[in-house]
Specification:
412 residues, alpha+beta, 2 domains, 6-stranded mixed barrel, 10 strands, elongated
């Protein structure tokens, strides 16, 4: 792209002492600005990717991706589940469930809870709960034992340990000789999971048949939960499943329950990326400024080169080399720093959080700062930085090529 002579002269100008040190300062600021812009953009996008990943794997790994619920209890739910899997290739696993809400009480503490009656054999295929059990197992949920699996946040708030009894109070009231009293049942804590504070504090699991007994329902399931190959096909998958019995089944999916959270993360990622990209744009404008001042400072040198027969194209390339060198050094340094920060930011902030007790992540749905470095993002940011740096050299270089040697040397 550049002639050898243009490279030689351009690199000499880059290394040479300049009579105007302010030009060198502006060039240094341009390089530092480019480095910081690229590094921060890579780091921040990696953090946003990490939040996106955690939402998909943790939150959407626990809440149903797509469901169909029935107006009445589905007695032969196995046949319905097989039909859903057969008719939609996006469905990789299914599981029955019964949903109920209530309050847990123990040791004088009371907390609201969303209880799901499950069959452990099927639940392990559609949920990540089994990989996040800190004590016990989902397999401890056996029909008739009235066992319960709770999140770590709920266990701590109620002061429970494995084997303790906890009372589930249902909002439905039962008439008795003493009057109307709420229905309640004592359960034994047999498992504890830890996924995220948001999930751990509101979700509980009990055997599906025990849930049916609590609600005084016949044996069966209220609905079918689906796990999908692509979570973004959830609305379509739910509609397909409901179409099997449109008068009895009603579709639902994660976009209705957690779609706002996912959309907010995507919007924040786009806006933060755009704002940080402006740092790189400002650094590119600084390259323009430094090269314009350099051209003004080197007018005499340009005139002499032209007198010796240098073509306008050669002069253009000489000054483009200097701008490209600034862009390459700034971009490469920023990429290296950005990759290092993206790979270590979780550990660094985690150490700071624990050392100083700052509780930096209490407002989020996870208790640490996630980060996921994607090569596509690195390549895109690096490429955009290179392109902007190159484009920033065109105007000053073309201006240098238009300098008239006779007019310039007359006043030197």
């Amino acid at each position: 792209m550049f002639r050898p002579l243009a490279l030689f002269i351009g690199l000499r100008y880059t290394r040479a002492e300049r009579s105007n040190r302010f030009i060198s300062f502006i060039s240094l600021i341009s390089m530092i600005g480019l480095t910081l812009g690229v590094a921060v953009l890579i780091t921040v996008l990696s953090v946003m990717n990490g939040f996106d990943r955690e939402l998909k794997t943790r939150i959407l790994g626990m809440v149903p991706q797509a469901t169909v619920t029935a107006t009445e209890v589905i007695g032969d739910w196995e046949a319905l589940a097989d039909k859903i899997k057969t008719e939609d290739p996006q469905v990789v696993a299914v599981a029955p469930f019964i949903q109920l809400q209530g309050m847990l009480t123990s040791n004088g503490q009371v907390a609201g809870i969303m209880v799901t009656g499950v069959d452990p054999k099927y639940e392990k295929n559609v949920s990540i709960i089994n990989e996040h059990m800190t004590e016990g197992s989902i397999d401890t949920l056996k029909s008739g034992d009235f066992s319960i699996v709770l999140g770590e946040e709920m266990v701590q708030s109620l002061g429970l340990t494995i084997g303790d009894k906890v009372t589930l109070v249902l909002p439905e009231a039962s008439p008795s000789p003493a009057g109307v009293i709420p229905r309640f049942k004592r359960f034994t804590l047999t498992g504890i999971f830890s996924i995220s504070p948001e999930v751990d504090s509101i979700m509980a699991f009990i055997p599906m048949n025990d849930a049916a007994k609590l609600l005084r329902l016949p044996s069966g399931a209220q609905g079918i939960r689906m796990k999908l190959n692509d979570i973004f096909t959830a609305p379509i998958a739910a509609q397909k499943a409901a179409a099997i019995a449109p008068d009895q089944l009603y579709p639902n999916d994660w976009t209705q329950t957690h779609g706002n959270l996912f959309g907010a993360i995507q919007m924040e990622k786009a806006m933060v990326g755009l704002l940080l990209f402006l740092i790189i744009l400002v650094a590119a404008f600084n390259i323009v400024s430094s090269l314009v001042m350099l051209v003004t400072d080197k007018k005499a040198d340009i005139a002499i080169l032209k007198t010796f027969g240098a073509s306008p194209r050669l002069i253009t390339q000489v000054f483009m080399v200097q701008g490209v060198v600034i862009g390459v050094i700034g971009t490469v340094a920023g990429t290296i720093l950005g990759v290092i920060f993206a790979l270590t930011i979780s550990d660094i902030l985690g150490f700071i959080n624990q050392s100083f007790g700052l509780h930096l992540f209490d407002a989020y749905f996870i208790n640490y700062l996630p980060s996921q470095l994607r090569l596509v993002d690195v390549a895109l940011i690096t490429g955009a930085s290179f392109v902007l740096s190159f484009l920033a050299t065109i105007y000053p270089a073309r201006r240098a090529a238009k300098i008239q040697p006779a007019q310039t040397l007359r006043y030197e």
